[in-house]
Amino acid sequence: MAKLILSMDGLVLKEIPLKKERTTIGRKPHNDIQIDNLAISGEHAVIVVILNDAFLEDLNSTNGSYVNGQSVKKHVLKDNDVVELGKYRLKFLKDAPDANLAASFEKAFVSSAEAARLGSGPRGHTETMVGFGGEGSVTQTERWAGESSSEPAASAVSAAGDALGVVQVISGRNAGRELELSKSLTTLGKPGVQVAVITRRPHGYFITHVEGDTFPILNGRQLDAQAHLLGDHDVIEIAGVKMEFYLRSHAS
Asked: How far apart are CA 252 and CA 247, in angstroms?
């Protein structure tokens, strides 16, 4: 089933399966996807799904609709297209992850080439997908590129400075393996089971739940839907795999 990943300033907000033939987007409450922002028209756009195809249509909105940086009135959506409405982004994924991909998760830390940049922003970021296909196995592959995010509001400021965030698997057969969080957005988990994202910000690293009926666990406590600032040596549990987040100085 096709779906949309809604984000703003690089922070993933929610996942929306396209279950209906018509999915409306706008500021008014009756829309299927309500975005309460003055830059969004009351009835801004609609996505129509017919069999295996999806179409975006701008509903004469004030500020327009953009796909991959280009202004559109009507557009046939392709896999990984990014719809831009004001500061909001809707990434279109044509199909849910194939269950057969679990076999590829058996190889740990297999990196692919850097993803191509989208849009016309001066800087880009990539998302890394990390899956668990068995007890504690980990793989990373590049998934997308997009506009660089701005600094979030945060009441607590981490001591990250210029230190690089790292997650180290501490349970399962791949215990000890590490993943450097060098990208602006890193996705952790097993698609269809439980997925979370870690965003790299000027004031530290934040973890946010994305997919799954249950939320990830941080230091023994279940997270909620909000983004949480990670501290040095925090323990995260996602899709049954425990990992430790820590900060590595460039000198080490």
From this structure: 10
Q: Are 198 and 165 in contact (CB under 8 A)?
A: yes
Residue 227, C-beta contacts closer than 8 angstroms, at least 6 positions apart:
11, 152, 199, 206, 207, 208
Note whether 222 and 47 are within 8 A (CB): no
Degrees (nearest 5) of the Cα angle 204, 209, 215?
125
Q: Could you tell me the CA-to-CA distances from 231 to 138, 182, 244, 247, 249 in Å, in that order?
A: 22, 17, 10, 8, 14
The confidence score (pLDDT) of residue 27 equals: 93
pTM score > 0.70 for this model?
no
For residue 12, the surrounding DSSP H or E stretch is strand 11-17
CA dihedral 135, 139, 144, 145 (to 10 degrees): 120
- Amino acid identity of residue 19, one-letter, is K
Angle at 41 between CA 37 and CA 43, to 5 degrees: 120
For the sheet with 74-76, list strands across it. Answer: 33-34, 22-26, 45-50, 53-58, 74-76
Q: What one-letter code names the amino acid at 122?
A: P
The tokens 């549990």 sit on which residue? 237
Report DSSP state, residue 117. P
222 CB neighbour count, 10 Å cutoff: 11
Selected residue with higher pLDDT from 87 and 125: 87
Instruction: Pick the most confident of 29-33, 187-191, 199-203.
Output: 29-33
For residues 22, 68, 76, 50, the Cα torsion angle rounded to the nearest 10 degrees is -30
Dist CA 126 CA 186 (whole Å): 8
* Residue reference for tokens 């939320």: 215
